[in-house]
Amino acid sequence: MLVEVAFALPTEQKIISVNVPDECSAYEAVIKSGIVELYPEIDPETTPMGVWAKVLKNPKETLLREGQRVEIYRPLIADPKEARAKRAAKMKAKKEAE
Q1: Residue 5 — very low, low, confident or very high, per pLDDT cuts 50/70/90?
Q2: Under a CB-based contact definition with an 8 Å cutoff, are residues 26 and 59 in contact?
Q3: pTM
């Protein structure tokens, strides 16, 4: 069956289509895709993964279905609350300047 493995950096995105056997786990699809060789910062043992934006609790036990996309997640660089507060302050300053 055909599935996709996706990984995104701030400057690029890589999606690899890979043929896997039936009853293939998300973890196995990542290994078979070869994406770890392209991006050595990915550690499939510890890096969070998901399928269609839903985080998997155990990628080694989650079986895939035809057409699904395994997403490999990176850690957030900025705290989302801090980033939102900075954007709000910037917008407030912009409105006050007008």
Answers
A1: very high
A2: yes
A3: 0.75
